[in-house]
Structures
1.
Amino acid sequence: MSTIRIEDIAHVRYAAPDLAAMRAFLEDFGMDCFEESGRLYGRGADGRPFVHVTEPGEAKFLAVGLRAETVADLEKLAASEGVPVEDLKEPGGGKIVRLTDPDGYGVEVVAGQAKAEALPLPADQPVNTASAKPRFRQTVRLEARPAHVKRIGHAVLKVRDFRTSERWYKDGFGFITSDEVEAAADVPLGAFMRCDRGDKPADHHTLFLAQLPGELGILHAAFEVANLDDLMLGHQHLKAKKREAAWGVGRHIMGSQIFDYWKDPFGNELEHWTDGDLFTAADPPQKQPMSALLAVQWGAPHPMFAGKLAPPPGLVSFFMALRLRVLGLFRSKPKGTPA
Ligand SMILES: [Fe+2]
């Protein structure tokens, strides 16, 4: 039984030396931006006060925000962790409990934030397919423009020890596994985890913890956009603005979402996504091979497979080590044991 059950991810917080450059990118990415008390905030269309925060400073990832259902939950969490519940002195107010995870990442658990007025999203167009034709005497005419970020959906964090981090996030916040990714049988390298909302639908993943080689850090933060046309118009807009594309467009295997990854001016990766899987707490966890992690159902291959990106430093030795570990497991079996 976890201390509390968080209901969603709330925000990501970065530092950057040039807030104007970050703002220009986030506006091209489809966020509504404003500055307050020396910080830059990006919000989506869902009326939450912010989903992306940038503080002035050397470029780095600072924290992930998680949203608790109630302030009473924050009090429970604070008592369990021996830390105070503080006033959240940022847009929307509310309360916050500040924690540090096993890898030193800031985890900001918030509740009681006031919702701002929701922003309009483009309407979904009826889609004609071979078997259904709901669009009749009605054209499709789309204007070039940025995508519309509705909300933040998930963050992917690199961790030193997956099982340690998994325990910490599950015990504290009630995360449940959707897909555990294995480098080999019973050699996990991470898991896509979702919020436990009982019988209410939850995104396939709100957090992905990945034990990969190289420096720790956030791999990306992901934001839901209005629909497929919106995602593609966003892609076209970012390309026209000569922003740095990272990967996409394609459809993932785990989570099934249509994705499009871009880099901000400080090297942080942000994802646009639409049409992801939803599950309830009753849906059992699955195991997936590593090959399913970077493969696509359709669309652009991962840059590493397309030869556009060198494997990150340490990746080759990491997988060599892993291979040796797996081989060692087989070698340690008594003679005569079937493989
Ligand atoms: Fe993602």
2.
Amino acid sequence: MNALLVYPEFPDTFWSFKHAIRFIHKKAALPPLGLVTLGALLPEKWSKRLVDTNVKKLTAADLAWADCVFISAMVVQRDSARQVIARCKEAGLKVVAGGPLFTSEYEKFGEVDHFVLNEAELTLPSFLADLEMNGARRVYKTAEFCDIRKTPTPMWELLDLRRYASMSIQFSRGCPFNCDFCNVTALLGHRPRIKTADQIITELDSLYNLGWRGQLFFVDDNFIGNTRFLKTELLPALMDWRKDKRGVPFYTEASVNLADDESLMQMMVEAGFDAVFVGIETPDEESLAECNKGQNKNRDMVEDVKRMQRAGLQVQGGFIVGFDNDSPSIFQRQIDFIQNSGIVTAMVGLLQAPPGTRLYERMKLENRLLGDMSGDNVDGTTNIIPNMGLNTLREGYHDIMRNIYSPQQYYQRVRTFLQEYKAPKIRLPLDFQRFLAFFRSNIRLGLFGKERFQYWRLFLWTLFRRPELMSLAITLAIHGHHFRKICELRIF
Ligand code: B12
Ligand code: SF4
């Protein structure tokens, strides 16, 4: 069997980093980890080929080679997934679909032959057994969650590693919290399931042996779901692994209570973590109560962010406007929070209700659903009728985005952050493309960019105040260029 694994293209969005990764000549920010995991779960004797259409074209030759196509996608790739499916059907191929998009809304894809939903570790074996007997059903799904200690090492060799800015790896699935707008718990459960430290070391070794020295994203929903295991097993193992390695800085996602645990932060930094994405959502206590984000309540979150920065973790933040409790004053309060905390990468979105969440059920009961969500939570759209009125919400949202990504505010925020940040010990090895990126940014941003004054001001400020953070300052300037492009595209 020749199995063709296809990942549809991402639109040009906040998280695609398309306008930033060009500076280092990369094609995509992250690899399709679901498909490389699937590759390892498919029978060993099958021939496998992976086409991530974010890094290369799906050609007629690929389709002619294949006996069967396996496609994975998130909601944001809905349109491009439809295009891929149409091409595969035209070529007369059987299409098998899985991953978060199809798990959430498979009924909308009539052309797909087989849906192998939820976690492939659980649903794929019965599909393969039925296929062998020529009796495969249309839908395979489960309400169970798998034991990820049995998940195999992803088949990294299916990827062209040189095309990616970062690699990803997964230590845990699921989250102990219960925020009402989030479908992580519906998709992956409440109890964080973890891999063993040995499994992670084997995965790291296999990537390292393939030559990977770049950034590595631990794509956990909440990396600190099991702190005891982290402190006693995983982080000591990562520190040990690092001893004879170059590069490979880590970043991940965690809840804000990470800031309460000084020793955990120190161990993470020692193990090579230098950044963490945190769901801040809103500085408004009532709105936090409304969405059941108790872990963010009754704390000084600006101070929490600074504590993480001082420990050596750059904080990227997720923010939401459009809660029922929000009044128009929320827009300025969000701007103030973002500026004061020095969260450079602030993903601000309108509240959306993904199917399968408690918010979705509430909106349905209240007749406030507006159809499908776009899947891109930074495009200024929503699938619910907000309390404050859609126009007020949209205008306020556009104001936030215009404000925080204007060169003056953005560069100010970078300085606020760099002032606080403890420089990481683990550095990315300087390769030729990163070396060139420095010149490219000097020309594109420093000579032709609207932000040129701010760019050189940051350059000089960093040179004299935090010279050890120069490469990070340039990287953040390049990210700012991407975020501004996205704002322009969305006409914010
Ligand atoms: C890494 C990640 C990203 C990366 C994407 C990198 C990439 N190239 O894929 C980035 C940072 C770009 C990203 C962005 C966004 N993401 Co995201 N992301 C994740 C995250 C944290 C990990 C994904 C991953 O690699 N998992 C590990 C692999 C092993 O799991 P998997 O892909 O689910 O695959 C398993 C199964 O699904 C299945 N499977 C997968 N594919 C296939 C295919 C077949 C044929 C079969 C049989 C089985 C199968 O088997 C695998 C093994 O069990 C998930 C949450 C999560 N824990 O999964 C969210 C998640 C996928 N993202 C989500 C969302 C909403 C977003 C954003 C809108 C913003 C946000 N809230 O984060 C943006 C949208 C993108 C954009 N605007 O460009 C949602 C998707 C919801 C949905 N139903 O589609 C998730 C589930 C998190 C959440 N609830 O908010 N994201
Ligand atoms: S803490 Fe994050 S992953 Fe967990 S339920 Fe809340 S939003 Fe979802």
